[in-house]
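task queued by scheduler; priority normal; single chain, no ligands, no partner chains; default sampling; output format set to structure tokens
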Amino acid sequence: MDWRCDDCFFCSNFRFSIFKRKFVNFIMNFILFLSLFFSFLFTQENDFRYNQPNGKISGLILNDINQKPIEYATISIFSIKSDVKQPIYQRISNKNGYFYIDDIKPGKYKIIIQFPGFEIIEKDNIILKPSNMNIDLGTIKLSIESIELDQISVNEKKNFIENKIDKKVYNVADEASTTGGSASDVLEQIPSISLDIDGNIQLRQDGNVTILVDGRESSFGNNVDMLGADMIDRVEVITTPSAKYDPDGTAGIINIILSKNEYLGVTGNIKPFYGQRNNFGISGSLNFLKNDWNIFTNYSLRNKTSLGPRYRKTLSYDENDNLIDYLSSVSNGQTYRHPQNTNLKLGIETYPSANETIAFDLTFMTNTGVDSARSFTYLYDLDSYVQTRTIEDGYNDDINFGFGYFNNLSENEGWSLQFDFEGNDNYETINNIEPDTSYLNLTDEEGSDKVFMLDYYRPIENNYNSDDSKIEVGMKVKSNNDLKNQNYNDSPFNYDYNYNRLSLYINTSYYFTESFGIQGGLRFESSTTNSLFDTFGLDLNSPANVFEWSLSELGEEILDFEYSYDRIYPSLYFLYDMKEKGDLKFEFGRRINRPGPWNLNPFPSINHQQKWIRQGNPLLKPEDIYKYELNYSNKIPSIGYLSVGLYFSQVTNLIDRHKFAKAYTLLDNEQYCSMSNYTSQVECELNEEEWIDYDVYSILTSINKGKTEDSGFEFTLITKPLSNWKLMISGNYWYNNTTEAENKDMLGVESGFRGKLKSTFKLKNNQEIQLIGNFRTKMKITLGEIAPSQSLDFAYKKEVDDKFNITLKIQDLFDSRGFHIFTNQDVEYDDTISQFMEADIRWKKRTISISFDYKFGDFKKKKYIRGSSGYDYGGSGGMDAGY
């Protein structure tokens, strides 16, 4: 069960300490109440022993700043007549702020109401008499104490996982194993998140996941390595978002929340790190908070170098099991990546009144560097080795700024207005150097996203749960433009992609009993997508080379394509709180996966020696997804936290990679045969293989595969076997069945299991050791299988004092992380061939690094920052949007 408050008004780092104080306060008050109860039986005056009617005192306790109810406030009743200095009655307020004390004897009393961090309220001369035995104190508003907290430990940690109604939150800021790394290192530590064979983020083995940063989409998509790990405060995972969220992403949403200041005065930190193979960097923050102004900055500079060995063996056979040598090869190589990433975030908040927040933030990210790949390929038809090199050089600049105004009109009612803008500028050169040929691709890309959001929420009268019974409505307008200016060996091409969307949503929550509630919503979207591929007058009917031929094979329809649709996305939740037995939740939602420019752009990338072509498909349609989930979670005494879930989804128009072989020639049959020495057209075509040998290319693209049914099971267990040992075990089993497909070799089942084990040991003298294990069983894929693998990360952290610590980290301790793949595919071009492929792919090798973290400033936490956690930032995203 989740004891945390979704609408907590304190800074997030303060939540756990509040709970500890509330729990301790409850135990102490309970013991005190028992002792006072028995003393009361023997110390009251005789007139209390007579059989007189008993009375009651009730009331409602609210936060004076935001009008929210205060749970666990202590209400103490003292008798004015009695000499006893201890309370004779004592209660605490419930989660709705109400308290009710009955069985009170007639008399004259004083009432004291208190809660940590708030001013104490005293009510004198409260008189219960036969003519007035029921007293309602009405609404009592507690004010924030004017004094500040004493200096606290800046190393105070929050729980790693928080289970919210519609999402799970992972607090990763203090994880030693991610220090000095990238955002992908952080995400790999989270249950059900992994990296695929190309290093892209997956959720439940599905790469169609929406990645957000502070509630906003980013131009880098799943390439989260641009973001430094030390800037990240927490990660939200939403697998079946409600109607107020954007419906993008089959698997759901991963929202990366960057750190934000919550300390008074001037504070900050600086964190340099250094590792093997020229991996180094520095990150830090500088913050200022005084009165009604909060200014915070985060900065990160990372120079990263990774080496990844590669091996690929491809053997092709005809119908008689004879080796087709010109389609067979063995390649050994290595990739070298050397990116340099710079991140800067600046945020400003001001609070014109107790109910208003005005916020602005700006995030700038840049990525420069060189990637290169070198391979030695044995070609069976030539019986010789050839060497190829690919060098990629360029930069990627991304700037994002947002403005927001948030207003709480009254208790549980408010509205917000937000505007976000993101612009990106990318430049890339790809130089392919081969023995007989080389070509140069140039790409200059500019893009922008503009988003406007308006949201309103208000409570629904409810006798059981007034906080969570509410109605939410909102509007979102989004416009996206992406222009790629590309060049192939001095031939220009432009790809212009535009996308516009209007969204309206309504979302309602209501509780029918104290334990059972329902949340339902509808989201309407009207979308238009159009793309224009400009060949600058090139006649695709008369291609002059492989590049132009690969474009001509797609047809002229790719030159100007438009796709519009209107859809309604429903969502439904059933919530059942079984108290100490846990929480049960059923979820349903409709989702969409829209193909992006990467999947749509038809500009081909060619490897002439290995005869490979990678190419987008402008004719792709969005995937349509219906999702169902059943989840159970509980905090089990003496065991720990347990979460178990079952999920199922149906996907139509599934987008998937598709590989096929195509015979390349610049002449069709009739043209070739008219120039040949064959005596007839028939004889020429019967010997077609003589003139298309060595010109068969394997084309890798994306298609709408058909229909799939995906299901799975996941679990997370967090426990403490010993007082100084915390253990997290998580796993995910998936079973995906493709029931309809364009080609028969796409039909079939994909399945497997991934697990994570995270073990944290607290040692003496403020030392910590962390071990992160990742493992997967043999994975069955449609065309073959991926071999099982295991890997282990190690981290040691020493806190020298409250402001300085040292971390030693070893990623992939046994140098074993990678993919070993086997596939067997029937490929069609003129005849059916069988193609066997075996590959070893690794993105990086074992890396050892050391980092230092020094904090400066007093680190006195402000008791309450208006707007820090009381708003649904992100509007229709419903998440903290980083203001």
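post-processing summary
- The first strand starts at residue 55 and ends at 63.
- The chain has two domains: 12-142, 265-877.
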